[in-house]
Write a structure and sequence with these properties.
It is a single chain. The chain has 203 residues and is mostly helical. Helices cover 75% and strands 0% of the residues. It has 7 helices and no strands. Helix 5 packs across helix 6. The radius of gyration is 39 Å and the shape is rod-shaped.
């Protein structure tokens, strides 16, 4: 079946004679009779729009859905069974289904947008928080390292930042191994206490 070249909005230009029932017009529409479809459109489109408007509330969307409904009527007119109900009820059932589908589609789109926005906000916040935390902690470590003696600071930096072993640290600094171990132990204790105090002062 070819689709009509245009879907005329009700203008009153078509015959509204009660001699032809909606069911008859629908059956003629099923045969591809565009004049019958135009007459049927004039009769039922206002009812379709009213029903859709009550569900969607948005006038522009209601007009779009009304056009979709009437196009469905044109395309599926052959499925109408007069024994199962009136043409009017059959068309309004299509309208109701289309309107509900549009509501669900709009809600799903809104939910997806909200979820994407929330995920983006969470990711952005987490990245900023991680960066700030890392920078604060690095700054605190540098500050606390500055409170150590030169031997303690150099020993810890060589061992923890450069990966040297205790003997290698002792060799690098020209100190005895027991001295390096003692200084590093004392330095780590002071560093731990300093970091604990500094973090405790954070807001």
């Amino acid at each position: 079946m070819n689709e009509p070249t245009a879907l005329p909005w009700p203008t009153g230009s078509h015959s509204r004679s009660g001699a032809v029932a909606d069911g008859d017009l629908l059956m003629l529409t099923a045969t591809g009779d565009t004049a019958a479809f135009s007459a049927l459109y004039d009769r039922v489109a206002p009812w379709v729009f009213g029903l859709v408007r009550r569900i969607l509330r948005n006038p522009a969307q209601s007009e779009e859905v009304t056009q979709e409904v009437m196009l469905d009527v044109w395309r599926t007119a052959t499925r109408y069974d007069a024994d199962r109900g009136s043409a009017h009820s059959w068309i309004l059932t299509i309208a109701h289904r289309r309107a509900v589908d549009r509501v669900r589609s709009e809600q799903a789109a809104a939910d997806r947008t909200e979820q994407v926005g929330a995920r983006s906000a969470d990711v952005a916040f987490d990245q900023v928080a991680d960066t700030v935390t890392t920078r604060l902690e690095a700054e605190q470590v540098r500050r606390c390292l500055g409170s150590l003696t030169d031997l303690q600071r150099e020993s810890i930096e060589l061992a923890y930042y450069n990966g040297y072993t205790y003997p290698e640290v002792a060799q690098q600094l020209g100190a005895k191994l027991p001295t390096i171990k003692a200084r590093m132990r004392d330095g780590l204790i002071r560093l731990r206490d300093c970091l604990g105090t500094t973090r405790g002062q954070r807001p």
